[in-house]
Amino acid sequence: MNPKESAVSPGKKATVNHRTVVGKNRRSRTKARIIEAALQVFAEKGPDAPVIDDFIKITGIARGTFYNYFSNTAELLSATSTWLADDLADAIESSIQVIDDPVLRHGMGMRLWVEKAKADKAWCSFVASVWFQGGFALDGPLRDIRLGIKSGEFSCPSAECGWDMTMGTMRQAMIRLLKEPGLAKTDYTDRIVETILQGLGTSEEKREEIFSYPLAEIPRPTKTIA
Amino acid sequence: MNPKESAVSPGKKATVNHRTVVGKNRRSRTKARIIEAALQVFAEKGPDAPVIDDFIKITGIARGTFYNYFSNTAELLSATSTWLADDLADAIESSIQVIDDPVLRHGMGMRLWVEKAKADKAWCSFVASVWFQGGFALDGPLRDIRLGIKSGEFSCPSAECGWDMTMGTMRQAMIRLLKEPGLAKTDYTDRIVETILQGLGTSEEKREEIFSYPLAEIPRPTKTIA
Amino acid sequence: MNPKESAVSPGKKATVNHRTVVGKNRRSRTKARIIEAALQVFAEKGPDAPVIDDFIKITGIARGTFYNYFSNTAELLSATSTWLADDLADAIESSIQVIDDPVLRHGMGMRLWVEKAKADKAWCSFVASVWFQGGFALDGPLRDIRLGIKSGEFSCPSAECGWDMTMGTMRQAMIRLLKEPGLAKTDYTDRIVETILQGLGTSEEKREEIFSYPLAEIPRPTKTIA
Amino acid sequence: MNPKESAVSPGKKATVNHRTVVGKNRRSRTKARIIEAALQVFAEKGPDAPVIDDFIKITGIARGTFYNYFSNTAELLSATSTWLADDLADAIESSIQVIDDPVLRHGMGMRLWVEKAKADKAWCSFVASVWFQGGFALDGPLRDIRLGIKSGEFSCPSAECGWDMTMGTMRQAMIRLLKEPGLAKTDYTDRIVETILQGLGTSEEKREEIFSYPLAEIPRPTKTIA
DNA sequence: AATGAATGAGAGTTCATTCAT
DNA sequence: GATGAATGAACTCTCATTCAT
């Protein structure tokens, strides 16, 4: 921005901005509060059971305030999913998009995914029980599987089969992690990723390579809600 | 039976038995009617959405009659699942239990499963959306995977990993079949089973063997409800 | 009955009588079973709460059978009250009607009444909570109080006042006996009768006389129900 | 309060307070409306018969509004009883607590009680049919009877006997007043109190003293509901 | 924006009553 | 007479939604 411009009538501008920002922040903060609480609620009760009361009780807001932001629980669910998708992008996708090799990228993506599932129970629960339900589709993995098949490093009947196996197994693994929390301390997560890679037809050497890389820290993103 | 005994007060005995039998039959039939209708309803709406009205409308029974058999929709869901499990046992398990080779048995079981998913839309929808939810556990596959690992024909990190991949992928495949009905006419179902078998570490020859056998007819069992 | 008469054509008569008696007995027995069970049920739950299911469950009869005898719970309640009133007449009234002195008769009647209340919990509970509700009115006590006033042995403002005090106190005593079962072993019952007699204005000597008589055994009447 | 402080952001403060106060008042009034209507309904139909519809029809509130305040009719009954007990304290207890002589106090209390029963039909009906049912216990009378026995002015077998006679007779008197409204114009109420006092063993002079005092006006209390 | 009382449609549940066997 | 499955009206309870403050 042109510094000259910003200097014009700074007093008034500042005031206006301040009000706007405060207003926006408050709006944002309330919305963010609702959504973050919603993640917990949906993770615990699933996508359909929660009623508006669940959200207003956990957040402490008034009934009417809820309606200022969402007109029903479905809308809140959708917002929570979107928020989570952005979160995912920040947390995982950004870590692996620097990798050029699609096979390695797919492998590292899965490793980060299960790592996050281990580390963030609410996330895991939400994704396993709610998100899949809504039939979310991730394009990244599908594209990587296609590229892996083209390069010959993956050999599975079709990219769709590979995707179904990848996603189906990941979900099943998350369900198992939720049911048997003790597994988080074992190498189960590595083993499940290994199983998927075998299902995709990778060579043993490739699998060893994928597991030879250290795992990036998963950033806990602090988001602002639009 | 001693004919002399049967002659003792035959009138009363007959009356009592008759009433009892008639009553039981009527009970059974009504219960069966509700459960079979419930399968359709749950398949369409999922496990939570249906309300009692949905069942009484589709069966034509009175509101109170529903409560003569089930005290809430959850109980009906459970009964329906149990009924389906028995149905499954009749339909699939009995077909494959004659096979000695556990690897072949596992493969044929999966082939029959996806075949049924293709053939019976309601079954597929119910199993995909409802049954898995309840965390149903099939012991047969787990046992076969264990045996396959022991014999060296399967090579996957653990039986649990193998089971998670098998079940997770099967479910994902069912979801895809429901979303893309056109796939039923392709070889997608064979390909997905092939993918799973590769994930379990079978040799290509074994896979070919598994697909070389013809598929038994899936019997449509007529059941009586306890 | 003349034994000669009974000997006339005994075979046929016996048959006819037998059938009739058996039929009547069965009817009677079923009705009696319901009423005797009803006494317990009403005693426990009060007059309004019980539902038909309570009676058919406790008696083991079928739903329809109930309606062969009573068309609703109110009718059963009424029948139970009538049955109890007859029972009371057999048990108490017959014991005291031989006494000529109305004051003594009233006193002995009350002593027997509280004695029965101590001995028969269900009777006590039924009478306290159900019977009074219906505003039952016993003429015997009222007449005796009137006669006692006329003879000068009772001195209370009016027979109605005396009756209200007698009955009100008796009921309250029954309620206390139900709440504090330990009192049954004390002389509370005598004391409460003494209090009533004092309220009716008797002399101390009269009271002593009343308590000097031994109490007749309360017969447990076995009734047949019409 | 510091006037400076009160000037700080008066708008917001005022608004918040205003809302809160308005809300509370509205709440209170609605609750009071329901309870006062409930007194009528319970008095007419007894404690068990009324259904929620009875209350929402008579008050004109919506079905859901009822549930904002009470979760079932039993809770409303309990609240009504509590409200009535407070009412009683205001109406009667406060009138007699200035009297030192326990015998006189007990007598005046009873006179006020039957006076209220005559004057307030709904109160009488509610107390007679509902309140006693719940086994309400008034400590005041029990204490006064004890003191009267200790001073030698009451002579009855025990304080409990005296209490049972007092309360039992009062209730019976209320029932009679409801059934025979004409009695309200007679001296029945004085006579019944006299009968009770005789039952407690008072001298005739004491009874005359008790009736020599004029009866205080029974205040019709206007209550606020917590 | 925030509040929360009021609303009433809709879902759940009970239970008296009927009736074919 | 006895049986008990079926019925549906009456009742209870929940919860999304509105709106004055």
Key terms:
DNA-binding; mainly alpha; 11 helices; disordered N terminus; Tetracycline Repressor, domain 2; about 230 residues
Q: Radius of gyration of chain A over alpha carbons?
A: 21 Å
The CATH homologous superfamily of the largest domain in chain A corresponds to: Tetracycline Repressor, domain 2
The helix/strand class of chain A is mainly alpha
The portion of residues forming beta strands of chain A comes to under 5%
Detail the poorly predicted runs of chain A. 1-21
What summary fits the major beta sheet of chain A? none
Number of helices of chain A: 11
Q: Largest chain-chain contact?
A: A-B, 32 and 32 residues
Per DSSP E runs of 2 or more residues, the count of β-strands of chain A stands at: 0
Instruction: Please give the oligomerization state of what you see.
Output: homotetramer
Query: pLDDT average of chain A, as an integer?
Result: 85
CATH fold name of the largest domain in chain A: Tetracycline Repressor, domain 2
H/E order of the elements of chain A?
HHHHHHHHHHH
Q: How would you describe the shape of chain A?
A: elongated
CATH class category name of the largest domain in chain A: Mainly Alpha
Helix content of chain A: over 70%
How widely separated are the two ends of chain A? 22 Å
Q: What is the total number of structural domains of chain A?
A: 2
